[in-house]
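Researcher: Re-running this chain for the archive, since the previous output was lost when a drive failed. Same request as before.
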Amino acid sequence: MPKAPSKSTATMVTTIANVKKARNESPFFLYRKISTRRPAPLHPSRLYEPLNGRLEPYIGLLDGQRMGGAVTASNLANGPPKADPKRVLVASAVVASLFGWGGAALAQDDSKALAEELANPLAALISVPFFGNYNGEVGSEREGSQWFVNIQPVVPFDLNPDWHVISRTILPVMFSQNGLFPGSGSQSGLRDTTEGLYFSPSRTFNGFTLGAGPIFLLPTATDELLGAGKWGAGPTGVVVWQGSGWTVGILAWHNWSFAGDADHADVNETFLQPVLAYTTSRAWTFTLQGEDTYNWETGEWLAPVNFLVSKVVKVGGQPVSIVGGVRYWIDSPDTGPHGFGGRLGMTFLFPAR
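Model: Regenerated structure tokens:
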């Protein structure tokens, strides 16, 4: 006659059964399985950095030991668990929400990076801006106005791993200009084009980016009151520092005319564009800049100060920067604009990555 199991043996069998039941019901194993499947396209630093400090509250719901269960390291050797469907859905929702949060943060970081690149005139970023401008109180009678759009494509080219050249074109299109002086009438059409080529090292120096090269004045104006009627050339350069969201720098050039209409005055002018900008974590950029031109032939300044606010957004998947702001003319010749003006525009961005 077989011997009946002792009380201690029965207790051991019951304990083992309870351990196996706890093991099968705990989603701890499911969490380990999900959390170790790292999405291949994401760099590890991008995968885990957004989750720091946010994963800990959920571990208490997924870790069997924190739930008071009997899951231990010895249970892991007993084979895969049978996950409960409800727990699978809950765990999947938690992990998906975490990765969704990380993806939103990554997209926001991308927008901020684009906004900072856009603030740097030497960034390796293809951009096509369309800036609408209004100037009031134009002319000696202060009764004229100007409405025009600047088309300013920026295209970088790699020369080698250490150097690249940035092409910066400014093509102004005048929609309406009137009141330069009594009897001047109104004008519309193309103004003169400037083309700058900036040779710049690919790496920065303690946050500084440097660039220099030639700039050219092209007599593309369709009306004699819209341009200088001269071919010109000269040197141009940029110095920019960026750090902690700030952009500080200056772009400058000088143009001398060397050919063109003999009835027009010679071109001998210096352009200065100091810039101070701050970009927030949400890709808003606040910019204070000058666009100052000094005419060495007449000894006169054209000196506006612009305050601009821009935001990088996506329109149908296309990154776009929307900008608006006001300007005030600190100094201007009699035939130029005075008082306040404005700018409204958008820039299409084509990042290399």
